[in-house]
Hints:
Number of strands: 29
Oligomer: single chain
Shape: globular
Structural class: alpha/beta
Amino acid sequence: MKPIATVFYGVEQSHGCENVQDMLLYLGDNTGNLLFRYALQKRIVDLSGYELVPLPAGLDLFSRLDAETCRKVLSSALVIYPVANLLRSREQYEAIGQIQNETRFLTQLCDLFSCPILVMGLGFQGRLESQGTRLPELHPAQIELVHRLLEHSGFITVRGQHTRALLRQTPSLRHALIESLGCPSLMISSDRQHGAMVAGLAAERQRKVGLQRIALGLPSNKLGDAVLMKHLARLAEDPRVHVVLQDLTDLEACRQLGLPEERLHMFCDLDAWVAFLRGCDLCISARIHGSQVAMLAMAPFLLIATDSCIEELAKQMALPCIRSDDPELAPLLADPLRAQRRALDLDGKAYDRNRQELARATVRLLQFNGIPPHPDLLALAGRAGDLTGPPQAVASPLARIDVRDYLERHPEDPSLATQNPLGIAFHAVTTGLKWQAFPEDQPLQERPVVDEPVQGHLDAALRISDRHLVLVGWCSDLADSASLSLAEPNGPAMSLPLGPVRIRRPDVQEALEWRSGCRPDFGFLRIVERSVDAIPLRLTIGAEVFSLEEVDLREEGYQAVAERLLDACQWFHTPVSRIDGLMERDLGEAFRVLWQRRRAAPAGDPDVQLQSLQQLQPDQTVLLVCLNSTVMARLQLDRLRRYPSVQSGSVRLVVVVQEGVSCCYSGCLLFDLLSDLLASLPSALLLSKGQEMRWSQMVRKVRRWSTAERFAFLGPGVLTSSSDWLAAMAAGLSELPPGLFDGGRPPLQTALGQPVDRMDAYLLLGSEASDVASTNVCEISSAALVTLASGYETPSVPSQSRPYWQQAVEAFLGG
């Protein structure tokens, strides 16, 4: 019988992930974990002598595993636990509950095993620091975790010298075996000359003219790296750029930028990711694993270090890197060919020497602990053929824990009744309560498995359109594979999977007297296509059959239906982190149906409406105002209507609104609101922009029709000044104060009076100018425009509230 090797958060070739939500659940909310976990499981240890027990992410270990698998896990001779950016400063640790929970769980998990626990690539995550900066202090709980890991394996590998020095400053760790070996993903390629091969392609790349496809990886901290995000957002507008998404914040940022779906990519398969980057001429990434995949694909890459983690990894792994605060970065991002030349400057021989040395160090540490290194790792270290003794099985008393005896000893905790042997063992070691093991010569006696009948209820069937029904209810089956059954009377049944993202229902938990450690995510919201005049369906949940008695909401206003849907999601109880998952599935589809239901803008081709701009006199000005917020619309139009230049007709307003936006409180459509606000300006044009069109495309469309010499623009996030700056310009452009033209960029200021450099408002001089970014821009310094910070125009509301959910839902859809 082979010894057991348990791999937490294991990855498999046949993962079965079909959408973004499944991928992120499988890979721990970041697809970059794919490389890290793949390397630990497939390239570091030779697992051929073990019986492998993979435990995928998202699995409830303490209630969903069967008893036999639980006892195998407790008998492990080796545990592989992938954990990377866990170490934080004391202040950050105390502020981030997720880091506290992971630290506590891994520390307690150590008590379950008497075998080596392989944790490689442990790293500290913090800000970029300058030379000589004092090292931060770790929290005692994280120092305790390091001690516990050292007790099990005798060594720890960390990501770089910064993390190593951070641990070494603790007196009790100064003489511990702590090696800085970079990320395990460095060992994926078994070719000892991989770096030389990549460098050898540089000459061929340099002979190639132009860049056809560029891969882009966004930073994980969008707010903290706002300046970098601004440069990357401009780069992403290039149609050659394809963004490789690693988490939901990447997806949300790309949707806010209006990037087309065909240029957004997410991978849950390493081969597919490598194949995609192999077809790219350049990869620019602010993620370490995005650059590592580019290295595997032999594609030129520019790695941007946005924090200490990336910087120390790049140094340890001999990867070319530039800090996000380096003044040379902005020019590189503005010129992709220049960035490619920088990326091609790779010392392949130095990379190979470093990688081989790190491979040898890894082999020494594994053999020191009796863990067989992977044959590819041995070959990379130049020690192919080295033999390590076969792994030995471990006899752990916890693997034979008597569950029934434990429950009888401790009846005061009813939640234990839902726990499997692994959960009972974890409870025993963390509480210190007494437990008993079955004798070695006595067979294990498991509790009889009682299959609880599936219970559920259909709370409502909401008819939101002639073709769409929304089903709301709950089901006690919490498995990802749980499904309902829909059928016509005497007709075949149709399965309706509930999926992994569910709605929290504490009311159901109380009614069922649910005592499991699982979260009570019993609720569901599913949308089905069903004609209003079709035969009524019946829904089966467990043994219960429900007739679909529809509530007709087709004549209800947008806001009333939106609130009904949000209430069905139990916004007060369901974590806001579920919004993206719900929007990826049925809630998003339901809101799209609502948007399609809204009263459309007045019929007519925008080009027909814009033809009137050809009648303008050369000395007139066209002012294009872009709006996607009802609050901003009221502020903007209230000021513009007071401008003498607008009232006299010397400035012609063209107002473009984002289609489908409404007030989150009154339900009033933005288009309807502006129709009222512009009633006193009959010459103003009001247009609607669909989700498929970008603002820049609308700007070009309006400019093509205008015969005026001057064209002014106010972007969605720029509030015009209280004084008529357009009239001041028209009064005498030649008499403007000196210094107003500054490299084509207007001196804007934020709402707090801080200067900001961005192209959100400008005045073009001459109707023949074709490129906004290359023409002179003018703005009156005595009446500065105000750039509203993100979210400035929206009142602050608590996250567990209906308005917050509605704002998040509409932002997800691009509103």
